[in-house]
Amino acid sequence: MRLTVAPPDWTQVEIAVPRTPGELPGVRMAGFRHRAPAFVDIAMVAHPSVTLIVDLSDDEGLIYDAAGRSQKGSAFVGLLPGDVHAAGTLGECLQVRLSPVVAARAFGPAAGLTGTVAPFAEVWGRGAERFEDRLRAAASWDERFAIVVEVLGRRLNTSVDAEVAHIWQRTLAGQGRLRVDGLADEVGWSRKRLWERFRSQLGITPKRAAQLVRFDHAAHLLAAGEAIATVAAESGYVDQSHLHREVGAFAGTTPAVVAAAPWLAIDDVAWPVTPRR
């Protein structure tokens, strides 16, 4: 992860969330509009979801840089994208977070897009331009959220094993601290079968998924101002050194830098646990 050169001034950003979140299980959405378009350079932190960012800006918008490659406009950010940052003019965009299970059902097996930032149309396929045009033409954020629920809901055709979906949910609920062997026993599978089915359908191994979920939990504790030693203990790391290694592996930096990541600063607003009033 690269250091943020010009983080957004969140007091100048309007954030919209659905009035009734959870209409489509495994899908979360937030809309962002900068009152006065401004240049930003944002380091993005790994998250246990496949993220679709639809660029609705009238001007140049954002350019994503990952592994030395640049991607302009709307894009999918996969699981474990590595060193990714977005730079450009922050005008208006819609961010949709998809659980790996939903991503696999909508875009096919291994749609976790592990380690990639891909062009929107390349992943979405036929109808991508029309979908984006509908979102641009919508009169409100509520209408845009409804369009996503409608269109994405029609794409959920690919089957994902119930056992794989169950283990993903258990991994989230356990904040990445449950043992893979125990999860395999829960669904009556061998460890090998779990490993093969999970990776082939979600594009990530059960162990790596648990590490990602645990890292995300730790990152939010860091952003909340918790001491590094406390975060390490509460997140299930052996010690502070273990936490440092994991943060380095996922974000390429230190816990102190992750604590100041600009996206984490507004997570409670953009991704509320309870519906807005």
UniProtKB/TrEMBL annotation:
<dbReference type="GO" id="GO:0043565">
    <property type="term" value="F:sequence-specific DNA binding"/>
</dbReference>
<keyword id="KW-0804">Transcription</keyword>
<dbReference type="GO" id="GO:0003700">
    <property type="term" value="F:DNA-binding transcription factor activity"/>
</dbReference>
<keyword id="KW-0805">Transcription regulation</keyword>
<dbReference type="InterPro" id="IPR018060">
    <property type="entry name" value="HTH_AraC"/>
</dbReference>
<dbReference type="InterPro" id="IPR050204">
    <property type="entry name" value="AraC_XylS_family_regulators"/>
</dbReference>
<keyword id="KW-0238">DNA-binding</keyword>
<protein>
    <submittedName>
        <fullName>Helix-turn-helix protein</fullName>
    </submittedName>
</protein>
<feature type="domain" description="HTH araC/xylS-type">
    <location>
        <begin position="162"/>
        <end position="261"/>
    </location>
</feature>
<dbReference type="Pfam" id="PF12833">
    <property type="entry name" value="HTH_18"/>
</dbReference>
